[in-house]
Amino acid sequence: MTWEGCDAVERVPGKMSGEPVIKGTRVLADTIISNFESGSSLDEIAENYPHVPEETIRKVIAFYERHHQLVR
């Protein structure tokens, strides 16, 4: 998935091999989505990644859901 246009996600050369991460972290955006798709609640994801603001997790999930619906 391309995260272009999601202001909560960045790609930094040399950081996590240039994979899309949550801004200011080393948490892969796809990891948040994998947790969400596996049935983890927002609270559970936030608990697993306490250094990622809950609002940021919401933004990433919302961006994914909008993009995912367009691809289908």
Architecture overview:
With 72 residues, the chain is mainly α. It has one domain: Winged helix-like DNA-binding domain superfamily/Winged helix DNA-binding domain (Arc Repressor Mutant, subunit A). The chain is built from three helices and two strands; from the N terminus they run ββααα. A two-stranded antiparallel sheet has the order 1-2. α1 packs across α3. It is globular. The model has no long low-confidence stretch (mean pLDDT 93).
What is the CATH topology classification name? Arc Repressor Mutant, subunit A
Main sheet characteristics: 2 strands, antiparallel
Helix-strand pattern: EEHHH
The number of helical runs is 3
CATH architecture: Orthogonal Bundle
CATH classification class: Mainly Alpha
- Spatial order of strands in the largest sheet: 1-2
End-to-end CA span? 13 Å
Which structural class do you get from the secondary structure elements?
mainly alpha
The coarse overall form would be globular
Total number of domains: 1
Per DSSP, what share of the residues sits in E-state strands of 2 or more residues? 5-15%
Parts with pLDDT < 50 across at least 5 consecutive residues: none
* The named CATH superfamily: Winged helix-like DNA-binding domain superfamily/Winged helix DNA-binding domain
E-strand count: 2
Determine the mean pLDDT: 93
- How much helicity do the residues have? 40-55%
